């Protein structure tokens, strides 16, 4: 765990956001890049992580608390492959086609100085990425990217993040999927349903479950479902999971609740 806001006392610096290094099946994967460039960079150096040896990076979604350290990643490994969710207007993509089409409307009475592009908008509208020159591989559906490694795409229908696309990383292990999530904006059970299309057994969930803003009743129901509906073996929740949810995970999972603060290493079955 490279970046989070809690953990045991150490020289690592806490920050709001999330980042984890995943090593499995001969692959080294950076999942998200934290919320602040300097804090992320300092923690990477303190943990002696060599970003030059990454196989690829997964950015779960467009929010800054998951992309803040990406510039540092690119300084260390400028040609690294980066997977990100397809989002109109994000990661260097153009605006949505409906927005572009709306520019062509000729409203009677408009004066020439108020017309977009003098009435002749370019064929290809572009919006620069905050990371110029970076080639993102944009994902618009769930897909297996390497043997036993899956990117699970879900879309949020929640107030505040409506239509936000999010990627989760699922790893097939001998005991089921290890599911790494960023913020779970679409809902953690929605993500579980999508991941189960690849493998119905879920061994563990690692990362932000976004239960911090849910009622106690909702949190308890979700945590109970982890055990009773999904039959999940372990949980290593972080980031936006919330303190009450951590207490509930401890209640339900006991020793199978892996504390996953800064610097912790979560073992996966091999």
Automatic annotation (TrEMBL):
Residues 16-239 form the Metallo-beta-lactamase domain. InterPro entries: DHPS-like_MBL-fold, Metallo-B-lactamas, Metallo-beta-lactamase_dom, RibonucZ/Hydroxyglut_hydro. It comes from the Bacteria. Pfam families: Lactamase_B. PANTHER family: METALLO-BETA-LACTAMASE SUPERFAMILY PROTEIN, METALLO-BETA-LACTAMASE SUPERFAMILY PROTEIN (AFU_ORTHOLOGUE AFUA_3G07630). This is MBL fold metallo-hydrolase. It comes from Duganella aceris.
